[in-house]
Amino acid sequence: MPSGASESGSVSTETVFTWGAPPLKFGPGALDEVGFDLAGLGVERVLIVTDKGVASTGAPVRAAAAVRAAGLSADVYDEVHVEPTDVSFQAAGEHARGGRWDCFLAVGGGSSIDTAKAMNLLSTSGGELMDYVNKPVGKGLAPTAPLKALVAVPTTAGTGAESTPVCIMDVLGLKVKTGISHPRLRPSLAVVDPTLTYTLPPAVTAATGLDVLCHALESYTARPYTAYRKHAPDTRVAYCGSNPVSDVWAERALALIGRSLRRAVLIGTDPSARADMMLAATFAGMGFGNAGVHIPHACAYPIAGRVRDYRPPGYPQEEAIVPHGQAVAATAPAAFRFTFPTDPERHVRAARLLAPDAPLLDDPREQLTAVVTALMRDIGAPAGLATFGYSAADIPDLVEGTRKQQRLLAVAPTAVDADALARIFTQSMANW
After folding, report:
1. Exposed e or buried b for every residue in 246-268, given b needs 16+ CB within 10 A?
2. 3-class DSSP assignment, residue 45
3. pLDDT over 50 (residue 51)
4. Model's pTM, two decimal places?
């Protein structure tokens, strides 16, 4: 009997998965060829989207020079908010609506790339931001018009946003992190130049690297696509569950992370380590941008959205933030202990990919948790939620915030109720 077929012959579970990724240009100096690439897309008026921190590195100036050398016009929007909010997305969207640009060139980390995705959506489909934000926070509507070309140039090895069809923000009024997810948001081209990460501080390299780690692990351990109810072609979502193609990219990303994240943090100008981590970020994006992410990311949103006083080293100190990679990794050791029974062999394989020389533990449930914890400790990651200022008294609020992330929790390989989340948060107060 075919997979997903019932005895009556009707199909009740999914038999089809979709997988997509943008074309990729990779290597030192790739940024300087971006004008050629844009001209090949047939565009004429380019808006470069970045933030002031990235602008100070000179990368957007290099991008603008390459664009103009190809005979195209280039303007710069450098008002991207690090860790974007609904307010910053809406402001960026209004700016995009006011111009005649036919292409967006995002130069920066996930904040810049995600902001460019929101600008593209709002300037082509119109409406309000919350029309497109994932349910139940927003209406979850699909774009109503074709989007413009968007070329993504990442300057961090972290979010994988250059590969993915999602953009993430804090909704300030609700103190919750959520996003917009639709296949049309995926960039038209990813231009990945590892030299752009050489000046990242160690703390930022570590945090963004942990984001890559969790992207790969969560997509690899996600609910299989065959475990979902059958979709019609027009109802398939961007996150379809683990699948054979995403698995390949996740496995490759894990091997690269295991061999190079420590070196990238400790020796920031090591060319091979930086190249490995940029490849890992893109590969993990190709995995999770289709399979999805689950518990650590769902937990991360209230962790970041409800922080009070934490100001991480290496980041702007004007306001309290938990960098996304730190927020995601904080619950990862406990989360993978929880998901282990769903596929022990896969969890142990993930651990072996990350740390092939690590000793095998007597309790295999702890193997992946131990490997992730050791990596976090070695690169100076925060030891747990208590570092961010959280205590046991905050757990009910964190659980409530996480339960709003049903789009992500649905990707988990097993049901995640409030009691399970409370245990994960409790175990994550101090990971070592």
Report:
1. bbebbbbbbbbbbbbbbebbeeb
2. strand
3. yes
4. 0.90
